[in-house]
Task: inverse folding
C-alpha cells in the first residue's frame, strides 16, 4: 500500500520537469493522477509512463490561462476517477527575461493569470469535491526568486509572492473542511535547467556548487517525495506552511544580476 493509495490527484503542468516528477512519484505511491497539461504530446506521454509504472492516469489538455479549461480539468478528474483528493498547482506560462522597466502589462497579466488566477480557479473548482470526500490536500508552488528579488523575473516574483498569500488564506479558511493548503519553493533539474546546461558549459556544475548539499535536485526523487508528504496523511497537522526544497540554496541565496547591467546608471 502506497502513501497515496486510492487517492485521486490532479497535477497541472505535469507534462515535463518537476510536474512530471511529482506525477510519477504520485503514481508510485498508488494515486490515480490527472495530468493537466497544455502540450498534448508530452501530456499523453506522461500518462503512458504512469500506466507503465502500474498506475492509473488521465491526460487532460489544459490551458491555465483559461478559467473554463482549468475548471474542465477538475471536472474531468471527478468524472473519470470519481472524486478529487489532491491538487498540485505547478504550471505557469513564462515570459521573456527582461528588466522590470521593460516588462509589459501583457507579460504581467499572463504571469498573474497562469499562476495566481489559475491556482485560484483550480482550488475553488476542487473545493466542493474535496468537501464531499471529507477533506483534501492542496500544494501550491512558489519560488526562491521572490526572496532574492531575482533579476528579470519581476512579474514572476510578484505572482509567486501572491501564491504565498493565497496559500495562507486558503489554509486559514478551509481548515474547517479538513483541507490542508501548503506551498513549496523547489529547484530541480527540469526543462529550463537542462536547456541552460546545454547552452552554457559548466552551468550544471556551478548550480550544484551553490547548494550546501552540493548537487542539483531530481524532480522525481528529491521534489516528488516532499509533495507526497504534503499530499498524504503524514502531513495531516501541517497547513499554511511554505517549504524550501532546493538543497539548501535559500541559505546562501544567489546573485542574479545580469553581467551587462551596471551597478549604477543615470
Result:
Amino acid at each position: 500500500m502506497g502513501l497515496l493509495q486510492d487517492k485521486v490527484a490532479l497535477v497541472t503542468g505535469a507534462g515535463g520537469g518537476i510536474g512530471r516528477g511529482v506525477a510519477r512519484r504520485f503514481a508510485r505511491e498508488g494515486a490515480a493522477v490527472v495530468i493537466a497539461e497544455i502540450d498534448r504530446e508530452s501530456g499523453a506521454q506522461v500518462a503512458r509512463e504512469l500506466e507503465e509504472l502500474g498506475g492509473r492516469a488521465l491526460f487532460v489538455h489544459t490551458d491555465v490561462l483559461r478559467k473554463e479549461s482549468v475548471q474542465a480539468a477538475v471536472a474531468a478528474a471527478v468524472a473519470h476517477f470519481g472524486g478529487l483528493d489532491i491538487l498540485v498547482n505547478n504550471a505557469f506560462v513564462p515570459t521573456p527575461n527582461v528588466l522590470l522597466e521593460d516588462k509589459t502589462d501583457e507579460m504581467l497579466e499572463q504571469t498573474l493569470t497562469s499562476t495566481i488566477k489559475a491556482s485560484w480557479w483550480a482550488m475553488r473548482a476542487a473545493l466542493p469535491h474535496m468537501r464531499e470526500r471529507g477533506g483534501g490536500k492542496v500544494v501550491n508552488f512558489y519560488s526562491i526568486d521572490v526572496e532574492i528579488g531575482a533579476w528579470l523575473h519581476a512579474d514572476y516574483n510578484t505572482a509567486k509572492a501572491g501564491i504565498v498569500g493565497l496559500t495562507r488564506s486558503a489554509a486559514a479558511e478551509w481548515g474547517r473542511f479538513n483541507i490542508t493548503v501548503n506551498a513549496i519553493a523547489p529547484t530541480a533539474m527540469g526543462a529550463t535547467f537542462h536547456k541552460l546546461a546545454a547552452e552554457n558549459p559548466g552551468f550544471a556544475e556551478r548550480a550544484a556548487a551553490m547548494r550546501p548539499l552540493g548537487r542539483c535536485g531530481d524532480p522525481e526523487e528529491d521534489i516528488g517525495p516532499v509533495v507526497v508528504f504534503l499530499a498524504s496523511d503524514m502531513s495531516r497537522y501541517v497547513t499554511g506552511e511554505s517549504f524550501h526544497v532546493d538543497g539548501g540554496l535559500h541559505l546562501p541565496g544567489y546573485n542574479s544580476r545580469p553581467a551587462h547591467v551596471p551597478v549604477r546608471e543615470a
